[in-house]
Design a protein that fits this description.
The structure holds two protein chains of two kinds. By secondary structure, chain A is mainly β. Chain B is mainly beta. Chain B has a single domain, classed as Porin (Beta Barrel), CATH 2.40.160. Helices cover 7% and strands 48% of the residues of chain B. In chain B, the strands form three sheets. In chain B, strands 2-3-4-5-6-9-10-11-12-13-14-15-16-19-20-21 form a 16-stranded antiparallel barrel. In chain B, a hairpin with a 2-residue loop joins strand 3 and strand 4. The chains are: A mainly beta, B mainly beta. At the A-B interface, strand 8 and strand 9 of A face strand 2, strand 3, strand 4 and strand 5 of B.
């Protein structure tokens, strides 16, 4: 997937929007619901961001434990009726130990995300993404500000004070997505029978696409990925 | 003191980056938003590059001790940190800069024997302890293009050449970019700023602290205004700094430094130079406050250089200077900010044959600017400044510049 960053983001956003158009094109809603499960094996481990190394630092920055960065698996095309979303949904992205937690947040359109500061220092959360640009200004520990995400796409989040802080928010127009757990496992549940394209997204780009089918009888379908 | 022939820094930058195997980054599919790590996080790379183009500066208000103006400068830096063990790291910063060629700007070992950042010992060519601006002089930490006067403006003081009397010193008022004195080096070179932000000193630093209270002490071979790799006068400098952050929105710092300023060549140039200490002494206060979209910073530095009293009219007292600036930055949105800085540099009065005058010409500066973030790690700045000086050939100068800055 050798694409420029803006193109990757535009492609994902486009893909998410295309879901709206493709919904209902042969994707059945009849039959038992199924699930797609599996493991995404990320061979080139991405870990927690380090503070930007600077020779001007007065001292050694505190080290944080390394944490594997998750992937997001989602339907490139979604079934008919997939867009009855809860417009009042809320999610949280903390600022803790100069890190956004979680590093990747996957939400549906209409979700409001809270950004509480749990650090002793100020943070200034902002995004330059076309999907949703915002600037929450500086605020201290114990305070929180919120942003509502109205459009599907990828939003990259930064802190203006701590240049190593970054995170992603993936905004979907349907609910058929999952974020991998620390061991790489995922599950997309309540999937209607039909044929779909699964996409694996990791750190700003779609790394793999694969066709999967949920049988009319429902049940679990396994789809494992190895991302090198 | 450090006048070099300007070079094609773009070539130098390419050479540095290319020689360090960073060509791949330039060809990568997306720019890095964070430091590049290797060997399981044991090796970190961070870099920045900036190009500035602005007005000609016939009054030499913006010239630095690299012999170039801060309004026409290209610079690239690459910082490499290797951490063989959790509590030990080796840092180096290789910098290519207009007028400076390619130099290892910093190289030191950092040991953190206890705690997680509670105590650090650094040895080598180390970051400055004194003041707030020197450690944030990288273009991405400076909301404007110009530097504060105390960290950039070339006074008429030199460490390797001194005036024999007050008249010779007064003759150099307002022309710190090219100074000659009869005692010491006969070569005409630039004077020194109060604190050099562009070159670092060599020695040992110990830092103790936590997020609320932090202190550091450094013992180095040079001085604030003339940092060195090798000692030139058998004297050392002791500098210290303490920072208190009672709340996240506010930090206040105090700094002090004293070190042997005059070089050995001057001290041995004449047999009648009285014995004693010819030191640079400086005291600094700085503060930072922020809330919402505002960031306010200010700094005061009181400095003095003691020169040997040789001939009549004597330079009997230390040459004192007082400088201060106040800076504000307001974020107008995720991409745009505006900033302004007011700056003043004043000198003490000495008595010459024709009367009393400040030993160098007082200078003031006001600078306004905007910054626009094109994307994460790519910032474009534009600024306009007005400079005033009560001496020298050019008394007032209005200058403008634009700067593009990339970092990861």
């Amino acid at each position: 997937m050798l694409r420029s960053a803006p193109f990757r983001h535009a492609a994902l956003a486009g893909g998410l929007v295309c879901v709206l158009l493709l919904a209902g094109r042969g994707h059945g809603m009849a039959g038992a619901e199924g699930a797609i499960r599996g493991v995404v094996d990320l061979r080139r481990t991405q870990v927690t961001a380090e503070a930007r190394t600077t020779s001007a630092a007065m001292g050694m920055p505190a080290r944080r434990p390394a944490e594997r960065r998750p992937a997001v698996i989602y339907f490139d095309t979604a079934p008919r009726g997939a867009f009855e979303l809860d417009e009042s949904a809320r999610a949280t992205m903390d600022q803790l130990d100069e890190t956004f937690v979680p590093h990747v947040l996957a939400i549906t359109v209409g979700t409001t995300v809270d950004f509480p500061n749990r650090d002793l220092t100020f943070h200034n959360v902002f995004s330059l993404s076309k999907t949703r640009s915002f600037d929450l200004g500086r605020y201290s520990r114990g305070h929180s500000k919120s942003v509502r995400f109205e459009r599907p796409g990828v939003v990259q989040v930064f802190c203006d004070i701590h240049s190593h802080m970054n995170a992603y928010i993936l905004v979907f127009s349907h609910r058929y997505f999952a974020v991998t757990d620390p061991s790489g496992g995922y599950a997309i549940t309540r999937a209607p029978p039909g044929s779909y394209t699964l996409a694996v997204w990791h750190e700003g780009e779609v790394r793999e696409r694969r066709a999967v089918s949920v049988p009319d009888a429902g049940g679990a379908v396994e789809a494992n990925f190895v991302i090198r | 003191m450090h006048m070099c022939v300007p070079r094609l820094t773009v070539v130098a930058v390419a050479t540095v980056l290319g020689s360090l195997g960073l060509g791949g980054i330039a060809q990568a599919q997306h720019w890095p938003d964070e430091p590049v790590t290797f060997a399981g996080g044991r090796v970190l790379l961070a870099g920045d590059a900036s190009a500035t183009f602005g007005s000609e500066d016939p009054g030499w208000f913006t010239y630095t001790d690299y012999g170039t103006t801060s309004l026409r400068r290209a610079r690239a830096g690459l910082t490499i940190e290797a951490r063989p063990w959790r509590r030990l790291s080796f840092l180096t910063e290789i910098r290519a800069q207009t007028g400076g060629g390619v130099v290892p700007y910093a190289w030191y070992v950092r040991v953190s024997p206890i705690g997680n950042g509670v105590l650090d010992i650094q040895a080598g060519r180390i970051p400055p302890v004194f003041g707030a601006y020197a450690r944030r002089s990288y273009p991405q930490d400076n909301p404007l293009i110009g530097d504060p006067l105390g960290y950039q403006y070339l006074t008429s003081a030199r460490s390797d050449a001194v005036p024999a009397n007050a008249d010779q010193l007064l003759k150099m008022r307002g022309r710190g970019w090219l100074v000659t004195y009869p005692v010491g080096s006969p070569v005409a070179e630039s004077g020194v700023p109060l604190v050099v932000a562009g070159r670092w000193d060599t020695g040992v630093q110990i830092r103790v602290g936590n997020p609320r209270l932090e202190g550091a002490v450094a013992y180095t071979v040079g001085t604030l205004s003339y940092p060195l790799v090798r000692d030139d006068n058998h004297g050392k400098q002791l500098a210290g700094r303490i920072v208190w952050r009672p709340v996240p929105a506010f930090a206040i710092g105090a700094s002090a430094a004293q070190g042997a300023f005059i070089s050995h060549d001057v001290l041995t140039a004449r047999s009648d130079i009285p014995g004693g200490r010819y030191d640079q002494r400086a005291f600094g206060l700085d503060g930072e406050a922020s809330w919402g979209r505002w960031l306010l910073r200010g700094e005061l530095v009181a400095n003095s250089w003691k020169l040997p009293p040789l001939d009549q009219p004597l330079i009997a007292d230390p040459l004192s200077t007082l400088t201060g600036y106040l800076e504000a930055k307001i974020r107008m949105g995720p991409r745009l900010y505006v900033a302004a800085r007011g700056d003043q540099l004043g000198f003490s009065t000495i008595q010459g044959t024709k009367g009393a005058a400040t030993w160098d010409a007082n200078v003031s500066r006001v600078e306004f600017g905007v910054g626009y973030t094109v994307r994460r790690g790519l910032l474009v700045k534009a600024s306009m400044m007005n400079n005033w000086r009560d001496g020298g050939r050019v008394r007032q100068s209005r200058l403008a510049g634009v700067q593009a800055l990339f970092w990861f």
